[in-house]
Amino acid sequence: MVLHDEPAARERPGYELSDRYRLDHGTVFLSGAQALARLPYEQLRTDRAAGLHTAAYVTGYPGSPLAGYDGDIAEAAVLARADGLDLVFQPGMNEELAATAVMGSQLSVTLDSCRYDGVVGVWYGKTPGIDRASDALRHAVFAGTSPHGGAVALIGEDPSAKSSTLPSSCDATAIGLHMPLLFPGDVQDALDLGRHAIAMSRASGLWTAVKVVEAVADGTGTVELRTDLVPQMPVFEVDGRPYVPRPSGRLLTPFTLDIEREFHDVRLEVARRYGALNRLNTVPVRGADDWIGIAASGSTFREVREALAVLGLRTDDELRAAGVRLLSLAMPYPLDRDVVREFASGLGEVVVVEDKDPTLESAVIEALYPMAERPIVSGKRGPDGSALLPFHG
Question: Whose CA is closest to 105, among 124, 91, 119?
Fold first, then answer.
């Protein structure tokens, strides 16, 4: 089917709907959910070009804002198989069985019968789904990921309970599960951070969580296919040797106690270094006379920019003239303490903007507390303890 009314079609005659998944260069028109469906297909092509024989396995349980993701990934899987790539989509009976299946995709490389160098595993569900599947996910995270596989959890966030019984947030749960958290702000971010999510999982041995809000999942836009996006892999030595993740199904004491230590001494540190090396957190606006800084993550950062524009601070120059510095965090956990401290240097106050509980605010305070000179940190409450940003809605 040839499409003539999309932006990319006007630039390139003969544009087809399948191009959004099959092209590796130029621009395509995607929704956020379609960008995430493209992710394993694109990764398999990248691996094949690098001489790796990999497969991908996608499973999960639908729920808004990822309610239509199963249809998108099913379409991508058909196209991938037509190209000779092993992309398998299998809907889960429930969230925990799906998580256990993705855990198996990582453990498959430990078997002599494995036919692949690695398997990219993708789990999808909404925030109540990650709550429900937390035991299965905790075991899966402990089991680890393979260096040519990687596991990603796509978490549909529904903070206003539009289609959920309760308002909720996945941040604290992801942190409790030791899952690095990426938060895309738009469709382009969904594609780019998805690539980083797989690479970070391969480097660290951890599952990577991608927080997907409605504005991103249902949003659409023309996306640049970035062939120059080559994730930089950190080198981390353990006992004098570069760290290489090794998945293991030995989830019994004392092995699990060794893995617990590895989480804190190695895996999370590798993830933190990955985020710093690839500059996932940036200070896009700064000036010589800044007195206040605003920190936000993902789509919330876009909302902050919109709010500032409503107040009359539309451009970067207008923000600098007002003494406002901005910190954009695509990777709020594990937080890069160095970029937070560099951002806060010389400021009198930092305001953290986020939904629900003050997860990011607490991490910023923890990063700044050891500093002899540090700014006031406000968020849910102001410096005098009065309510500032709501916990609800």
Answer: 119
